[in-house]
Amino acid sequence: MRGEGRIFKRGPVWWVAYYAPKDGRSVEHREPALVADRDGEASRPARTEAEARRLLKLRLREVAVHKAGLRSFQGPRQERVPFEDLLQNLERDYEIRGLKSGRQLKSHLVHVRAYFSDDKALALTTERLRDFVAYRQKEGSKPASVKRQLEAIRRAFALAAEAGTVTYTPAIPSLTVQNARQGFLSRADFEALLANIMDRDVRDFADWGFWTGMRKGEIAAVTWEALDRDGDRWTLRLHAKDAKTGHGRVLALEGPLAP
User: Fold this and answer.
1) What mean pLDDT is predicted for residues 187-213?
2) Which of 107, 210, 237, 244 has its CA 20 to 30 A from that of 150?
């Protein structure tokens, strides 16, 4: 019946045909029936009518979801999207938003790219992502590093889904990271460490960090322009562009900070 699609053969190859949206109209789409392997790749033509019919049912569900306004219809296009395209789009998003963590992202993606190499985006099933986690753990990677790599993959799929490039996003495995910081120094212990730093500027740099709690990159970004002399009250303004969190703040120069 109309709207239910059909399957047919051209020579030895099974095909599916169905009506789906294109350029604002409902037109007939035809495609060879390809059967996905366990890794999500379209690897071989359907061998039986039942295999072809399963693909047809999948396409009709995608059309129904489109009509319900839940997701745009992509059809076979998304099955050809390389995972590398998603990673490049993720890096572009970091550049556009001016995120300072762009360098760390590139570092995390080195291992992601090495493992998934030339995979299609839809090949990244939850099972394969678990295999990736096990592989990285076997290599001795720390849980926090693997978690950052999984977060990058999650964000890459989220951006692709927002753009309509893919409609499928895998469930990303979660890792528990125990990284509570320990071993804070007392002032006496810190003074003992300062006594062993011969370079005066490095010693001053470290001492400033102890009293303010500012991160190393934040301290290095401070210039005289940040200093505000208002009578006896001096303050230092860390601009949002220099703060790791993206939020600026003001520091009162009192006590040991004044000199």
Assistant:
1) 89
2) 244
What six digits make up the tokens of 12? 């030895």
- Token pair belonging to 235: 């303050």
Closest to 168 measured CA to CA, from 58, 38, 3, 50: 58
Mean pLDDT of the chain: 83
pLDDT digits (tens, 9 = 90+) for 121-161: 878 888 899 999 999 999 998 888 999 999 999 999 999 88
- pLDDT above 90 as % of the chain: 24
**How, if at all, do strands 25-32 and 13-22 pair?**
antiparallel
| Distant-in-sequence, close-in-space partners of 256: CB < 8 Å, separation ≥ 6 | 211
CB atoms within 10 A of CB 138: 8
* Cβ–Cβ < 8 Å for 89, 159: yes
> For the range 111-120, what are the long-range contacts, defined as Cβ-Cβ under 8 Å and sequence gap of 24 or more?
111/136, 111/141, 111/149, 112/87, 112/149, 112/152, 112/153, 113/84, 113/87, 116/83, 118/82, 118/84, 119/39, 119/41, 119/82, 119/83, 120/40, 120/41, 120/79, 120/80, 120/81, 120/82, 120/83
